[in-house]
Amino acid sequence: MSSKSHLPYSTRALNHPNPLTKKLFTIAEEKKSNVTVSADVTTSAELLDLADRLGPYIAVLKTHIDILSDLTDTTLTTLQSLAAKHNFLIFEDRKFIDIGNTVQKQYHGGALKISEWAHIINCAILPGEGIVEALAKTTEFPDFPAPQERGLLILAEMTSKGSLATGSYTERSVEYARRYKGFVMGFVSTRALSEVGAALSSDEAGNGADEEDFVVFTTGVNLSDNGDKLGQQYQTPESAVGRGADFIIAGRGIYKAEDPVEAVRRYRDAGWGAYLERVGGGK
């Protein structure tokens, strides 16, 4: 898989085959931001306040909607309205990991109604290829909302100490992404995965590999900390983007800051500066 990470977002968006990825790159270019805020708060008021205050400075808001203690339909409709108002995408970090029949019900239905409001979801591939296939096929349901506005990230690597998402697991993540490019936007990983793609068989690598442009989201980005007591390992925006991140995910460094708006601006500037350096000033 040839990496296109050295190209500006605007160039990558121009003819990108995935409509949601195209939209994401366009948002990033318009707002000069590659920041995803991980809003790991536990009340609707906190979530919606962060979405409104930080929305102008981010490309994506990442949620763990099941940790809210007071989730209502109003929470979700207001979140959607704020995403439209401030022009950001919503990424529900559900990490689907079950058999196909179950994840379809979890994604499109149930109490959380994820398919109705989340532009981006993610999954782990421990159940095998079937989980990716099932989630992709969910977009074909007659009552599925705007399939072109929905996409999947495969959890290919994690930043936690001792993560087992390595080796053949990561290789298979790339393989499955290739097979479902219409729905799979890319990966949550610690680096660009071009070298992983090169390690696959020649038949797999020749399956449209030169035209691939998968997005890389990297978690655990923090400007002032090295990690926590629960195994999280942080890196700076510069190191994350330098290793291939297209979008940096920051949580506590922003929403727990004394002034979250000032903090998100610093992350935006650092992330965008690292991106410009990578693409040669955007030229």
Overall description:
The chain is α/β, with parallel strands linked by helices. 41% of the residues lie in helices and 13% in strands. It contains 13 helices and 8 strands. Strands 1-2-3-4-5-6-7-8 form an 8-stranded parallel beta barrel, surrounded by 7 helices. Strand 1, helix 3 (44-54) and strand 2 (60-63) form a beta-alpha-beta unit. Helix 3 runs parallel beside helix 4 (73-86) and helix 5 runs parallel beside helix 7. The model is unreliable at 198-210 (pLDDT under 50).
User: Count the helices. How many?
Assistant: 13
Structural class: alpha/beta
End-to-end C-alpha gap: 23 Å
Biggest sheet strand order reads: 1-2-3-4-5-6-7-8
Roughly how much helix do the residues carry, as a percent range?
A: 40-55%
Task: Name the average pLDDT.
Answer: 90
In short:
The chain has 283 residues and is α/β, with parallel strands linked by helices. It has 13 helices and eight strands.
How do the strands and helices of this protein lay out in sequence?
Layout: H1 9-14, H2 19-31, E1 35-38, H3 44-54, E2 60-63, H4 73-86, E3 89-96, H5 100-107, H6 114-117, E4 120-123, H7 129-138, E5 151-155, H8 167-179, E6 184-188, H9 194-198, H10 202-205, E7 215-218, H11 237-242, E8 247-250, H12 252-255, H13 260-278
Parallel strand pairs: 1-2, 1-8, 2-3, 3-4, 4-5, 5-6, 6-7, 7-8
Helix pairs in contact: 3-4, 5-7
